[in-house]
Design brief:
143 residues; mainly alpha; 6 helices; 6% strand; globular
């Protein structure tokens, strides 16, 4: 799994640009997110616009608008636990905590924060990927 990490705020634009270039090189046509607020997308687009050959899909809204499941929350971790039995056992349990740790990393330079964030993001991406595969399979099955 490829990692990008901005070690300071001035690297963010370069990281986003490299990420987009990587997606294009790999032939990625769709980028998936989970419960991304439109304000967050607007911030990202201001940093660097999404290339026209890649479309963004917020899987959270696709699922919550189309599928009923016996879960208390449609957030990524509870849904992943329901579908696949996955359970986060890390210090970081929600994305906001990762953002808080990133601020601490920028303030202190403590690489333990960086490693926690990278590990959390890896699991987050893998869980999103599992749900994307499940959802796409479900869509094909019921077309």
């Amino acid at each position: 799994m490829k990692n990008w990490f901005a070690n300071n705020s001035s690297e963010v634009e370069t990281i986003v640009s490299c990420f987009y270039d990587y997606l294009i090189t790999k032939g990625v046509k769709r980028l998936f997110g989970w419960s991304i607020k439109s304000a967050d997308i607007d911030k990202l687009v201001k940093i660097s616009p999404l290339p026209s050959e890649i479309s963004f899909h917020d899987l959270y809204y696709d699922i919550i608008d189309n599928i009923a499941m016996p879960v208390l929350s449609y957030r990524l971790k509870p849904l992943s636990k329901f579908l696949f039995g996955n359970q986060f056992q890390d210090k970081i349990q929600i994305g906001l905590a990762a953002i808080g740790l990133y601020v601490k990393f920028l303030e202190t330079g403590n690489h333990e924060y960086k490693e926690e964030i990278i590990e959390y993001n890896k699991k987050d991406v893998l869980q999103t990927y599992e749900i994307v595969c499940w959802y796409e399979g479900l869509c094909k099955e019921y077309k």
